[in-house]
Amino acid sequence: MRPNLVIISLISLAFTAMTNLALADGASIALHGNDRGAPACVTCHGAHGEGMPANGFPRLAGLNAGYLKTQLDAFVNGQRTNPIMTPIAQTLSGDERAEVARYFAGLSGPASMAEPVQETNSAGARLANQGRWSQGLPACIQCHGEMGVGVGATFPALAGQSSLYIENQLRAWQQGTRVPGPLGLMKVIASKLSAADIHEVAAYFSALPARDPSRRSKP
Amino acid sequence: MKVLVAVGLTVGILAVAAASATTGAKPAALFQPPSEQEMPRDEFGQTVKMGKDIFEHTERYASQYVGNNTNLRCSSCHLDAGRLAHSAPLWAAYVSYPAYRSKNKHVNTFPERLQGCFKYSMNGKAPPLGDPVLVALESYAYWLASGAYIDSKIPGRGYPTVPKPPLPRDYGRGQLVFEQHCALCHGADGAGQLDAHGRPAFPALWGAKSFNWGAGMGSIKNAAGFIKANMPLGLGGTLSDQQAWDVATFMNSHERPQDPRFKGSIAATRTQHHDSADDMYGLMVNGQLLGKGTPSVNNPNHGEKR
Question: What pTM, to 2 d.p., does this model score?
Answer without folding.
Answer: 0.86
